[in-house]
Amino acid sequence: MKASGTVFKYGDNVDTDVIIPARYLNSSDPKELATHCMEDIDKEFVNQVKPGDLIVADKNFGCGSSREHAPIAIKAAGVSCVIAETFARIFYRNAINIGLPIIECPEAAKGIAQGDEVEVDFDSGVITNKTKGTTFQGQAFPEFMQKIIKSEGLINYINQKQ
Amino acid sequence: MGMTMTQKILAAAAGLSEVKAGQLIEAKLDLVLGNDITSPVAIHEMDKFKTDEVFHKDKIALVMDHFVPNKDIKSAQHCKCVREFACKHDITNFFDVGEMGIEHALLPEKGLTVAGDVIIGADSHTCTYGALGAFSTGVGSTDMAAGMATGKAWFKVPSAIKFNLIGKPSKWVSGKDVILHIIGMIGVDGALYKSMEFVGEGIKNLSMDDRFTIANMAIEAGGKNGIFPVDELAENYMKGHSSRSYKIYEADEDAEYDQEYTIDLSTLKPTVAFPHLPENTKTVDEAGEVKIDQVVIGSCTNGRLDDLRIAAEVLKGKKVSKGIRCIVIPATQQIYLQAMEEGLLKIFIESGAIVSTPTCGPCLGGYMGILAEGERCISTTNRNFVGRMGHVESEIYLASPAVAAASAITGKISAPEE
C-alpha cells in the first residue's frame, strides 16, 4: 500500500485544539469536522488539501486533548498519512485505532518541506521525497499494531478475534 | 529487575507476575469513562461491534460536563444520545445535570476510583486518579468503545521518571505551582509515553487536592500517567468516599527509572505558564506587567474545595478590579454546596466575581467565558494553547487559584502577597 501527495508542513507541538478547535466539537460528523481541520494553525489548509496529501510535522504532534475528532478530521480531509518526529501518545493510539496511517521518522520530519511531493510505502516504511530526490526509513509498527491497521481499526480487529 | 508502581499495577491487571517497559499487554479495566464530547463517538463505534452488550454496567461512568447544561442544539443532541445509551444499558454511573460535576473531580468524590485500579477515560485528564494510587490514563473514543464492550484495553508498559519531592511548600505555593514548575523543567513532551512517579517525604505536605492537581497535569508533560504512593491521607480519603476495597502497590526498591529529579518544595514560588504552552513558565515575581481581561478559577485541575478556599481567602473583603471578568466554577455539586455552607460563594459574589454551575465550559473554549481578539485571561485550567479559550489572537496564562484571585483584584498578573 502506498500514499502519495503534497506536503503540509508544521512545527513542534501541534496540539489537538488547533487541529480541530473545541468550538466545533458539538459535532461528531467526520465531513463537518474536516471542514474545520487545522483551522487555528493554517486557515488555508482546508481550501488547498487534496485527497492523498500528507501532513509532516516536528515533535509531539497531536498533543493535548484526547479528542478522536482530531485524527478523524485529518482523515476525513483526505490526508493519507501523517509523518512526525514524535507523536503525543493519545493521538498515536487514536490514529491507529481509527486507521489513519502515521509514521514516526525524525529524519523525514527534518528533510521534508512545505509543498514537497512525497510518497510513502507502508509495507517497507520507506518515505521518498520526490521533490528533493531523498529517501528515509520510517519506523515499523510492532506486529500487534500492524494487525489493527490491517483490520482498518481496533473495532474490526476485536470483531475478527472473537 | 524491579518494577515501578505503575508497572506493578499493570502486571496485576494483565495477570502477569512481571512486566517490562515496552511490553505490549492486555489489561482488565476497573472503570471506563467518557464525557458528552467523547462518548457519542464511542457509542457510534459500539454499533460496529458484533456484541450489543457492555461488559459491566457498574464499571462505566458517563459524565455530562463539557458543554453542559447544553450550550446549543448540537450539544443537546450529543447529551441525548448518551442519555439514551445509558438508559438502554442501565449504566449505574451516568451523571447528568443535577448530579454531574467535572468528571475528574466527580469520580474520586463518588468513590469510583481507588488505589490499584486500572482506569481508562476518553478524556486526556483521566490521569488525575493517580493521586489515589490508581493507574489511569486518557484514551480516545474507539478505545473507550472497546473498553465498554470488552472490559479490556491494550497498553504498552511505560518506563518512568521519578520525582522525589522534599520539603514543605510555603503558604502561597500549591500543587499547581509544583506541576507547572515540573512542566517548565522537563517540557511539554518531557515525559512522553512515560509514567511520572511522585515519591518522597515532601508528599506528606501536599493535600489530596494538591495531589489531584499534580496528577491531572501529567498529560501536559506528555505523560501516560502520574502516580502517587498511597499514604494515610489517601487512605482516609478513599475510606471517606468509597465503599470499594482498594489495593496498595509500591515500587520495588530496585525499580528502574529513565530519569530522577529531586524537587525541594520549600524553594518553589508561585508560577505562571505564559502563552502558548504550559512549559513557558516564569515565577510570578518575574512575570512583569501583564494586564488581563478575564480570570477563570475552576476546571478539573483547580475547581476543588481547597482551590475555592484559597481564592476566597485572597478575595475576602476585596473587589475584582473594574473591567475584569472573574468567573468561579466549583467543580461538583458537592463542592458547590460545601463552598456555599462555608460562605465562600458569598465572598466571591461580594467581590464582584460570578459563580457558575459545574462545567468544563471556558477551559476548552466551549462557552461561559470565551475570549475576544487580543484579550488575556489568567486561568487555573490546564492548557494555554493557541485559541484554546476563544479567538486565535487571545492569550491564556496558567496559574494557581491564589495567583488568579490576586490578579483579579489588581487587573494584572500578581502575587497573592500583593
The low-confidence runs of chain B, each spanning 5 or more residues with pLDDT under 50, are: none
Largest interchain contact: A-B, 41 and 51 residues
Distance, first to last CA of chain B? 51 Å
- CATH topology name of the largest domain in chain B, in short, is Aconitase, domain 3
CATH architectural category of the largest domain in chain B: 2-Layer Sandwich
Mean pLDDT of chain B: 97
- Distance N terminus to C terminus of chain A? 27 Å
Approximately how much helix is present in the residues of chain A?
25-40%
Determine the structural class of chain B based on helices, strands and strand pairing.
Answer: alpha/beta
Let me know the number of strands of chain B: 18
Helix content percent band of chain B: 25-40%
Tell me the number of helical segments of chain A per DSSP (H or I, 4 or more residues long): 8
- Overall geometric form of chain A: globular
- Count of helical segments of chain B? 13
Strand line-up across the major sheet of chain B: 4-3-2-5-6
Oligomer: heterodimer
Task: Output the radius of gyration of chain A.
Answer: 15 Å
- The backbone outline of chain B, from C-alpha atoms, is globular
